[in-house]
Amino acid sequence: MYKPKVYTASKLHHHVLWKSLRANRDWDFVEWTASWIDVPQIQNELDGEPVELSVYSGAWSQNIWDVRRSDFLLLYAGRENALRGALIEAGCAIGNGIQVLAVGVSPDNTWLHHPGVKTFPNLVGARQHLYKFITMVPPNRRVKGRFANEE
What we know:
It is a single chain. The chain is built from 5 helices and 7 strands; from the N terminus they run βαβααβαββαββ. By secondary structure, it is an alpha/beta fold. It has one domain (5-147): Rossmann fold, CATH 3.40.50. It has a 5-stranded parallel sheet with strand order 2-1-3-4-5, sandwiched between helices. Strands 6-7 form a two-stranded antiparallel sheet. The chain is globular and about 45 Å long.
C-alpha cells in the first residue's frame, strides 16, 4: 500500500488541526511531510512573543523542501481568506507539479482554476480524494514507470 505524502498548509494556528489529523486513524494512510507544525517557535509567535529572524530563514527553507518532497499539498483555509505563507507554499507546489487540494478557500481566488488545483468544501472530501492514491502512484512521481522523486 502506497502512503501519499501530504504537506499541510494553513494559518499557523491550525497546527492543532494538523496534529489531530496526524493522530486520527481515519488519516493513517497518509505520510505527513510538513515539519512546521512541530516547530516550538510557532507557539511563541501565536503568543505574540518575538521570533528570531534566523528561525524564519531556516523554517522557510525547510518548508520549501517539505513541499517539494510531497505528492500533494493540502491547503486549509477554514473560511479565512487572509492566507499568506500558505499561498507561497501552494505556489511552490503548483510550480513543482504537485497537486494542491484546497479546502474552504473562497471561490473568488483565481489560482483555484489552475489545472493542478482541486477544491473541496471540507476535509472529508479531500481525504476521500487522497485515499484513491493508496493503490496507485501519484502522477508527479511517475517517470517512465519509475518514481521521479526517489529519496
